[in-house]
Amino acid sequence: MEISELGEFGLIDRLTKGLQTVNSSTIKSVGDDCAILRNHETDILVTTDLLLEGVHFDLTYVPLKHLGYKSAIVNFSDVYAMNGRPKQITVSLGISKRFTVEHIEELFAGIRLACEIYGVDLVGGDTTSSRQGLVISITCIGEAPADKVVRRSGAKDTDLICVSGDLGAAYMGLQLLEREKTASAGQRDFVPQFQGKEYLVERQLKPEARRDIIEELDKAGIVPTAMMDISDGLSSELLHICKQSDAGCRIYEDRIPIDYQTAIMAEEIGMNLITAALNGGEDYELLFTVPLHCHEKIEKLPGVKLIGHITKPSLGCAMITRDGTEIPLRAQGWNPLAKPEKEG
Amino acid sequence: MEISELGEFGLIDRLTKGLQTVNSSTIKSVGDDCAILRNHETDILVTTDLLLEGVHFDLTYVPLKHLGYKSAIVNFSDVYAMNGRPKQITVSLGISKRFTVEHIEELFAGIRLACEIYGVDLVGGDTTSSRQGLVISITCIGEAPADKVVRRSGAKDTDLICVSGDLGAAYMGLQLLEREKTASAGQRDFVPQFQGKEYLVERQLKPEARRDIIEELDKAGIVPTAMMDISDGLSSELLHICKQSDAGCRIYEDRIPIDYQTAIMAEEIGMNLITAALNGGEDYELLFTVPLHCHEKIEKLPGVKLIGHITKPSLGCAMITRDGTEIPLRAQGWNPLAKPEKEG
């Protein structure tokens, strides 16, 4: 169905049909000039992400439902990275004319699924036509008790540096998808080769936010001193924490968590594995620091790896390689403005 | 300066230099995964707008500073339309490569000026490259005491219908700007003819949000029963209020406030003046309903015009013309999805 048949309000009605809210702070959702929230106890966290077709996603190999899911997840991840819980999102869409109502329903199904799984209410947005490609802008509002909010700036000398999950897989998933896209060019019955690399594809197309880690830390009675989610690569994020905390750091190459599928793919495409893990980006794992006395508690947390420690600022930021060499950390993460795409 | 020389973080540093916050609810602004807000007394209002080059604005005649100012204002207007006060915004930008650092600074200067004048803190955002044109996504967070929040759904039979300012001028400003753009085609030293129509141009390029009306209503002790801002045209907005309030309405043609410049321009381009005033859009005036007993108080409010009254739903929504004819109101306002632009 053509979107113009429904018009803006018809489309919004259709996309938000049956939408129910689950959070007590959501007083009024879609349908007025503003959504109304009420929260008299915790701090409020606000984060926003803008995703543009051709820059952040390629619909040749990204299914719209996965794209919707991921668009929501990347915002939830920012709220967890403050030790908060995501509660509401607004979704703005710019839609070019090659998209049908069914396409946008697919996209929305992914967004709504993410909201359902993570207990988040969709409370508003904006819908308009776009002259080129799909534009997705999501803002997420989260909550956290004021004394539990974790910023980037609180890391202290001797704190332990921890990371959840494993790194570099989403980046390798992107390389794999791009490779198969190139291989498929002009072939009608092309079947992409993902066998044995399903994890990489999933990490790229359908990442999860680490709510589980935030809940485990809470149960263990640990409030990190600093925290970020890893969207631009471990190196880049760790440099942010050190800069904002006025600190240095040492991490150890042999402690960086890497999945075997990531290692195999790096081997196949002749890429340095540690470079991929340090700079790959889009992992949406949590990077955080805890006081030294949390050492035993952290060692017991499933899915968390201790990779190094914070130092005095004068020591700078470096990785110790397997042979004991110190290599300065550099931010080589994805820079969305460094290489502007050709204007279409 | 090329934006790629600065990169994302360099650009953000530059745009947010010297940024100070003025609201006590703003705990932590730009620079972490989320902004942190704290508000233990009032309700929280959230609204968002997505503006795309070629759909919502034409940089041939819209100066970037004005565009920034207007982008912020349209969000503030939504918060005032709930009887709230805007307090924070996040700004996401998609920037194509024809924009320099200086261009984006101009745009941001307009956003920051609007924030300064309206007492709003800029607390976050996202910045990325765009493959074509400029993308602006702004989310605004406002506050209002829970018992003062005004929705669209509260209009009651016999309530008075009021509107601030005058209508149709922004639409006529757009017609004027488009006419001069067409006239200028191919001419090197073209001077656009705006004499005697400065008000129309200003209404289109640099609208204001009606904080003054919200403050006057508050001083007069009036809480409207329903309210919206007029962004898509009076007809369309009034139909929203009546639908959500399960009500009908009668408005009077001779009560619709129209500036003389709007009337002259309508005459010049051979357009029905009332059609322009009812459906023009982008006025950002306030449309609201008050109980009948507020009649005298409303009559005394500067800048507010009483244009009709709410009826039982069975009577439908209509305008009474100067000769006493009843014409059903229809939503002919700007529909951003009805006619998708050609894909670029």
Structure description:
Two copies of one chain form a homodimer. Chain A has 344 residues and is α+β, with helices and mostly antiparallel strands. Chain A contains ten helices and 13 strands. The first copy, chain A, has a seven-stranded mixed β-sheet with strand order 8-10-7-11-9-12-13, sandwiched between helices. In chain A, strand 12 and strand 13 (326-328) form a beta hairpin. In chain A, helix 2 (64-80) packs parallel to helix 3 (101-118) and helix 4 crosses helix 5 (198-205). Chain A starts with a helix and ends in a 16-residue tail after the last strand. Residues 338-344 of chain A have low confidence and may be disordered.
List keywords for this structure.
homodimer, 344 residues, alpha+beta, four-stranded mixed β-sheet, 10 helices
Mean pLDDT of chain A: 92
* Sequence stretches where pLDDT stays below 50 over 5 or more residues of chain A: 338-344
Give the number of DSSP strands of chain A: 13
Total helical segments of chain A? 10
- Share of helical residues of chain A: 25-40%
Greatest interface and its participating residue counts: A-B, 81 and 81 residues
What kind of oligomer do you see?
homodimer
Largest sheet: spatial strand order of chain A: 8-10-7-11-9-12-13
Short characterization:
The relative contact order of chain A is 0.16. Chain A has 10 helices and 13 strands.
Helix and strand topology:
The structure is a homodimer of 344-residue chains.
Chain A: H1 3-15, E1 26-28, E2 35-37, E3 43-52, H2 64-80, E4 85-95, H3 101-118, E5 121-129, E6 135-144, E7 160-164, H4 169-184, H5 198-205, H6 211-219, E8 226-230, H7 234-245, E9 248-252, H8 260-268, H9 273-279, E10 285-290, H10 295-300, E11 304-311, E12 317-320, E13 326-328
Parallel strand pairs in A: 4-5, 9-12
Antiparallel strand pairs in A: 1-2, 3-6, 4-6, 7-10, 7-11, 8-10, 9-11, 12-13
